[in-house]
Amino acid sequence: MEFLGLLNDTVQNFVAFLVSLATVQNLFLMLGSMIVGITFGVLPGLSATVGIAMFTGLTYALKLDGALIVLMGVYIGAIYGGSISAILINIPGTGSAAATCLDGYPLARKGESGNANTVARVASVIGTFFGMAIFLFFTPLMTRIALQFTSPEFFWLAIFGILICGAISTPELAIKGWIAGFIGILMAMVGMEDIQGFERLTFGIRDLITGIPFVPMTIAFFGIPQIVKSMKGEEQTVVVTAEDSSKKLHLFSLIKKNILRIIRWGFIGVGIGAVPGVGENIAAWVAYGDAKRSCENGKDFGTGVYEGVMAPETANNAAIGGAIVPLVSLGIPGSPPAAMLLGALMLHGIRPGPMLSVEHPTIIPQLGAIILWGTVFLFILGIAITRLMVLVLKVSQKILIPIIAVLCVIGVYSYNLNSFHLALVFVCGIAGYLLDKMKYSSAPLILGLILGNMADAFFRRALYISHGNLFSLIDRPISFIFFLACVLTVVKQFPWGQKLFGVLSKRKK
Questions:
Q1: Which segments within 172-273 are labelled E, that is strand?
Q2: How far apart are CA 430 and CA 151, in angstroms?
Q3: pLDDT more than 90, % of the chain
């Protein structure tokens, strides 16, 4: 009864905020912030994290409603915007859109960029709405799940993310993906380590003390190889029009066919988003891996499959709602953009954590209403902007590639105004091009860079707490499940493992 009463109050406050926020000023703020967010998502290097960081100070003069609208609008828009550049030019504007490249760009190469963008937009809307609903009604439950994670769980989650990313990004030889992933982990080791503050692998270079930054490396390993290949003529120019080139898309049939999978991808996004410090990137890759395993056309993934676009875009947008759950209830951000949002909330006098429901009892329905309005504007702007963005493919490579190169440089330098990162990107960009020529995927490398510190720190903490007992890494139910998932992911890549799984699936039938 107490839960039903709380749910009733939440719904009433949610509806009240939904109506009260519908003022001309608030709607214009949402419109402008969504456009800015999509732009930050489309342009390489200008991610949701950078967008929220840049606009936090600008919202100081606004009232709380206006500030939350601007920040959430930038957040939602940027997560969606990354899919546009991922589909059109094979450069993910955000890390969470890296998985979208695998099938989105091949669809564009087939002349179906309009369809791919439509699927990405609808999936983003569904995912954002799903995340909002879970955030609004199941925050206490999701908080309890997230609280069950200790050091072993975080360690195995990081390893699982890298293994599954490597396996699905280089399906013909998964070990290449895993090698790339562990190169990324090695890069993450550079700089001052988290536990005792020792310098590692800096080689006396002071600019490396803070580590190798994620955003510039995304440009180096995704953007630079694409630019070099285009300049060398290795990439064919694709000319697509919004109206004629795309084949007819049976969107409702596609959604109806995959409705149960869409719900599962939404839960994957929310669940992983609610794990503190993980965020949208892993959610997108795990959902993509689930889609490849569960769909009838899984063997065709990577050649241009609509489910390969729908799964990561549903999950990474659903992770927005999931990432806010630990932020609001524990004061722990679930993703890098949510970490920026934490600082913004504190700037406006809101202290996320267990006491937030007492100090600001209506903050959950208020944020839920803002996310719903953001979902509406995402759908509207997606229709308006996608048709314009499809025209990018009609621009001559001689014009487009230099513009992209300049934007990449601006994105790298604007990240923290450090010229050393420009030199770092140049060197790593050459390495990225060579790895691409040898068929090593950049996606697991970037994911390894993101998760390397997390895997390292939580592995060492787990061993320190257990006095060096390795079995402490698998002696809890959740950690053991993640361990089994890692083992099965590896085993399934060997011929004998595929035969074993084939026999087991036949027995189930």
A1: 191-192, 199-200
A2: 36
A3: 0
